[in-house]
Amino acid sequence: MTGAMQRFLIRFARRLKTAEYWLTGKIVISVLALLRRLPPEKALGLAETIARRAGPWVGRHRLAVSNLRHAYPEKTEAEIEAIASDMWANMARLAAEYVFLDKLFDLDTDAATPGRVEVSGRDLFLLLREEKDTPHIFFTAHLGNFEFLPIAASNFDLAITSLFRPPNNPYVADYILQTRRGAMGGLVPSQAGAALQLARVLDDKGNVGVLVDQKFQKGVRTTFFGRPCLTNPLLPKLARQYGCDVYPARCVRLPGGRYRLIIEDKITLPRGADGVIDIAASAQMLNDIVEAWVREDPGQWMWFHKRWAL
């Protein structure tokens, strides 16, 4: 094959991929726009019903089931499939919730009785809000509607700049980014230069939020559910550099379309003999915390992610 032909095929493949992204993006955004016309509860219920039926036919379903079998060797096939079905329902609700963030998030920080969204750890939010000259790091995982966490912090006047990984599809990514920007604090895409941007926030005594349950190709070797995986060392590196307190936070879906946001007491990252934060041991600690969260309700985590690919 000539060099000219190779270049032509590469260009053609790129254009084909762009066309695929455009078409997929149009479909996704159109579906979300149609859901927007329905009452939130009805739209979310419809999205869940469709996802439970369609999920087993999606290619990633096989990966999810395989990951679940490794994580829960003691469970039956029926139990594994039930968790996978709950996972698809959770992911469908999460996608549909993007168009209803303004209607679903009803947290009243002064109300004695919780609404659709309740907070466990309210006093911590209030305490951290007053520590204006101290940077903090919050970490979470892809559980429930994790997007509610920075929105809640904003409601408590606690500004957080969140690191996020945009979808591969640029059209869907733009749509989600615009939705997020209208409801929460600063956003930093997970790409080259992201660590520097977060470092600048901490330099200015700000707060950052990080998702820690994704594969990171150049990460440190750790385990998750007993299997080897690569984990992003960014959080422990930032904590070591700035001496920040680190707080776990998560979202849990409750029956009846409700949500509980949980912010936990700060953790103490492990240190080496020299007294410096141990990056690998700290990354493993984060994995262990997230694993405990997932085990509480495995249907609320994204098992179709290639978390264990080395």
Automatic annotation (TrEMBL):
Coiled coil: none
Pfam families named in the record: Lip_A_acyltrans
GO molecular function: acyltransferase activity
Swiss-Prot/TrEMBL keywords: Acyltransferase, Cell inner membrane, Cell membrane, Membrane, Transferase
InterPro entries tied to this protein: LipA_acyltrans
Predominant cellular place of this UniProt entry's protein: membrane
Highest taxon of source: Bacteria
CDD domains: LPLAT_LABLAT-like (cd07984)
Any one annotated GO CC term: plasma membrane
GO biological process: glycolipid biosynthetic process
Localization terms from the record: Cell inner membrane
Name this protein carries in UniProt: Lipid A biosynthesis lauroyl acyltransferase
Phylogenetic lineage: Bacteria, Pseudomonadati, Pseudomonadota, Alphaproteobacteria, Hyphomicrobiales
